[in-house]
Amino acid sequence: MQKYSIFNLVKNAFSGHQNWDLAWKDPTPKKEYDVVIIGGGGHGLATAYYLAKEHNITNVAIIEKGWIGGGNVGRNTTIIRSNYMHDDNGLFSEFGMDLWRKMSQDLNYNVMFSPRGIINLAHSDAQMNVYARRGNSMRLNGIDAELLNREQVKEIIPMADFSDNVRFPIFGGLMQPSAGTARHDAVAWGYARQADSMGVDIIQNCEVTGFDINNGKINGVRTSRGDIKVKKIGLCVAGSTNILAEKLNMTLPIETHLLQACVSEPVKPVLDRVVTFGAGHFYISQSDKGEMVMGGDLDGYNSYAQRGNLPTLQHVLTEGIAMMPFLSKLKMLRTWGGIMDMSMDGSPIIDKTHIDGLYLNCGWCYGGFKATPASGWTFAHTIAQDRVHKLNAGYSLNRFNTGHLLDEKGLGTKTWIS
Amino acid sequence: MLYIKCPHCGMRPQTEFSYGGDATVKRPELNKEISDHEWDDFVYNRKSLRGKHLELWQHISGCRQWIKVERDTATHEIFKTFKADEEVA
Fold it and tell me: What is the DSSP string of A185-229?
C-alpha cells in the first residue's frame, strides 16, 4: 500500500496527482470466508481492521448494502467523549479515547481528531451536584473531568446567554477537556483503506437476503451477489438490526428511531468547544469549515425513513437559541436524518448470540460514532476468540433478562422519550 | 409534520400527540405463572417493523385519550387510526 506522507504528496504533485493508488479495491465476493462482517459503516470497517491487525484473521469480507461510510458514520455530529458515570461505559469509552488519540498515525490517515473539550452545562444547583458526582466517577476511572462554575464557563463560552433574566440560567458545567471531534468520513475511509491493504474484501452494493443456519450453527450467508460459506458472522448494521434480526427469527431489545442533525452557514471561528444544553437535549460544535453543527432529540417514533419532520427541528433549535442567542441570526445550510438503533437501556450490545458463530453489535443509540474504534476492537476480539473481552462484558445481550441494565441516563425502556 | 386523525377529535398535527410505542405488545396475563422470557418479550423485546406498524399515541394536548395508529415506518404514511379499545383486524 502506498504510504500517505509529505514526500509522496510532493512526488505525486509532479504527475498531477494522476497516479495515486486506489484507496481500496472493488472485489467480487469469494465463495468462502473465515469471517463475514455485515455492514460497512464505521464499526464494521473498524472490526475488520482489528480482526486483521490484532488477530491475524485476514480472510474477511465486509458486506455492505449501499456504499461504505454512507450510513451513520457519514451523517453524525462527530462528537467524541467518554464522560460516562457507570464503570462499564466509562472504561469502554476511555479505552476508545486512547485509540482515537493514536488513530491518525495508526491508520496513516488524517482523521483530524481535535480534542477541544466538551462542556455539559448545568442550570440548577441540583444539576451541579449531579455533575460533581459524575465528574468524580469519571476521575475514579481515570477520565479527565473538571467542574466549572458560572464564571469559568463564561470565560470559555462568552457567547452563551449569561444575562440575568433567562429561563435556564447557566450555573456552571462539567468539562471533559480531552473530548472533541474528528472528521467522520476520514474515519471510515482510513479503516477501509487499512483493512483492504491487509486482505479484507470490501464488497459494496451487496444486500444480505438470508442466512444459512444448521443445527444452531452459522453455515453461510445469502446475498444479492451470491451465497457465501462462512462460520462466523458479525452483525454491525445499526438502524437496520431489526430487519436482519427478523431473518434470523430473533426479537431484540432494540427499536429503530429517527434522529436529525443540522448545520448552519459557515461563519468565522466563534466556538472552540463542544457544548451541550443541560435543560433539554441540544449539542453544538463548530466545524473546521465554520459551520455550526447541531443536534438534539429524536423525532420520537419508530422510523426507517432517514428523513425527519420540522417540529422536532424547531424544538431542538429553540433550545439552541435559548443557550446561545446569536444562533437565531444564522441561516440553516442543511438538515438531515438518520436511523438509530435505540436499545432499551440506552447502552449498546456487543455479544455472542444463541446461534453459534453469530455475533451482535448494535444498540448504539445516539452515541455510535465516538465508540467506533473501541467497538471495532472489542467486537473483533469477541469474534476472533469466541468470547467477550472484559471491556464489553457489560454490553451483554442477556442483561435485559438478568436485570443488569446499564441505564446511564435512567430513562427506563423508553429511551426515545424526550 | 405528521397529521394524525384522532378518532375522537378529528385531524390534528403531531405536536398535539405523544408517542407510546408498539401497540401489539400484550402484557402477560395476571394470576398466571409467567416465565422470565415472557416478561422479557413484554418489557424489552420489540420487532420494530419496517413498513406497516400499529402503534399507540396519546392525544396529550387534546382529548388526552390513547389511540392506535397504523403507520408506515418507512414512508411515514398514516393509513388508519383506531380507538384504544377497538379491535384491529
Answer: HHHHHHHHHHHHHTT-EEE-S--EEEEEEETTEEEEEEETTEEEE
Closest CA to B1 of B22, B15, B11, B19: B15
Q: What is the pTM of this model?
A: 0.96
Residue whose C-alpha cell is 442550570: A123
- Say which amino acid occupies A327: L
Residues forming beta bridges with residue A61, ordered by sequence position: A36, A201
Chain B residues within an 8 Å CB radius of A310 = 1
Helices assigned H by DSSP within A157-309:
184-197, 241-247
Long-range contacts of A152-160 (CB under 8 A, 24+ apart): A153/A119, A153/A121, A156/A119, A156/A273, A157/A119, A157/A271, A157/A273, A157/A275, A157/A324, A159/A270, A159/A271, A159/A324, A159/A326, A160/A121, A160/A275, A160/A323, A160/A324
Q: Which domains does chain B have, with CATH numbers?
A: 3-24+41-83 (3.30.2270.10)
Interface check for B19 against chain A (CB to CB < 8 A): the answer is yes
The 10s digit of each residue's pLDDT in A63-112 is 999 999 999 999 999 999 999 999 999 999 999 999 999 999 999 999 99
- Report d(CA A367, CA A77) in Å as an integer: 10
| Alpha-helix residue ranges (DSSP H) falling in B31-75 | 36-43
Q: Give the closest of A252, A254, A309 to B14, CB-based.
A: A309
Select from B15, B18, B43 the Cβ nearest to the Cβ of A311: B15
**Chain B residue nearest residue A306, CA to CA:** B74
Residue A59 and residue A35 in contact, taking contact as beta carbons nearer than 8 Å: yes
Question: ipTM for the complex?
Answer: 0.95
B77 touches chain A (CB under 8 A): no
